[in-house]
Amino acid sequence: MKNNEELQKDVQDAIKWEPLLNAAEIGVTAKDGVVSLTGVVDTYAKKMEAEDAAKRVIGVKALVEKIEVKLPSAWTKTNAEVAKEVLVALKSNWSVPADKVTVKVEDGWVTLDGELPWNYQKEAAKSAVNYLTGVKGVTNNIKIKSDVHDAIEKEDVVAAIARSWSIDDSDISVSVSGTSVTLTGTVNSWYQKEEAGRIAWKTPGIWSVKNELAVDYEYAFD
After folding, report:
1. I need a labelling partner for 3 at 20 to 30 A (CA). Which of 39, 77, 154, 206 fits?
2. Domain extents for the chain?
3. What average pLDDT does the structure give for the chain?
4. Most distant pair of Cα atoms in the chain: their distance
5. Which pTM does this prediction carry?
């Protein structure tokens, strides 16, 4: 099992391995599987890269992210300029239905609202914004309201998760209530938790996923 120092070093190495982040000043602390990230970066994309890199490290059970985005003066844009570029990026992304997402920008922070039928479209909307110059952060408030009216079958979700080679589903429980799916149990990595959630989100007719899976690296060795 990893001690705090080993986990801290692994996360530090994972962050440095990312091309966008090899020169970034990001502080890492680790205690009992909880990793905290601090520091300042010059783009929101770097902030997201650091978070994603940390999540992929085996042994990370939870993440506290306090990285600040400070744009160089040459990259600073007005809220109107950022909003215009966000709208263009959304329109250019084929995964995002036209005129279904509204945009608000305050001090470089982008808030996305609206309703879409599929979660992959919600994720695509945020991804379209992440790398835009002038963006300091993104709040994705888009709601999922499926156009599909098929009843969600618990067995279909269970089978879909079981088909994934990357997930140990031996301690994953699925429950269905109306248009909502809840995942409970334990997995041995953050990646497995998020992957199980992504798979559940692909269920026809789904409106929400409550991903309550616990991450416990030691679980893999029990």
Report:
1. 39
2. 4-69, 73-144, 154-221
3. 93
4. 54
5. 0.86
